Amino acid sequence: xxxxxxxxxxxxxxxxxxxxxxxxxxxxxxxxxxxxxxxxxxxxxxxxxxxxxxxxxxxxxxxxxxxxxxxxxxxxxxxxxxxxxxxxxxxxxxxxxxxxxxxxxxxxxxxxxxxxxxxxxxxxxxxxxxxxxxxxxxxxxxxxxxxxxxxxxxxxxxxxxxxxxxxxxxxxxxxxxxxxxxxxxxxxxxxxxxxxxxxxxxxxxxxxxxxxxxxxxxxxxxxxxxxxxxxxxxxxxxxxxxxxxxxxxxxxxxxxxxxxxxxxxxxxxxxxxx
Length: 274
Known about the structure:
Blueprint: H1 2-26, E1 30-42, E2 55-65, E3 70-84, H2 85-88, E4 97-112, E5 125-144, E6 147-150, E7 166-179, E8 184-195, H3 221-226, E9 246-257, H4 263-271
Antiparallel strand pairs: 1-2, 1-9, 2-3, 3-4, 4-5, 5-6, 5-7, 7-8, 8-9
């Protein structure tokens, strides 16, 4: 059932991209740029603290400007998320940890508070809100007795099949844009991503593995990855399956206006003090 929901949401996202493509092509102005900042995670191993265990992230973006208020942005983002019970203190007796590379391809709508465009003298700065959809790929690894191991393959919660390493996420947040010159703009934003997976951290449900009688000398990698302390019984609560995992990107961007504006748009800009 879960896999079918993921496939349905993925299909909707792909359809959205296909419908948006002709709109992107039809416009006459756009901004191309790079972005950099940090990513962090909110989930079972870090329930509430923003920016804890933040990791560097970077990406590219293309922003299509429909008018001075509304833009549609396509972006790609590479980052890392991590969590550790020993650092967050959320459940120190559980003693789990993970780190995962994040690859995101997203499409989001941006709404400017003011009538902004790169080169504007009347409104060279504007706050904005954004929201959209993204396709996210991840692969959690954990430090198990000094070894970096891929957690999904170990089925640490006794899954019949390994969980999906792809998910749909929903970016939303706020930012600010500033026109540095006629061709260059800079920006800063902070956005959250709610995902459709509860396994960014390899933690979701209960200790399905039967660890009775296990000890560090004879325990398997799967058993140690499931329960490093070997003190929990089969069926004990390991994570919170009621909520899916989140991650965030906060950073800055530099963009360049790459298309010439149409005649009518130029006249509009002249009236605004271009």
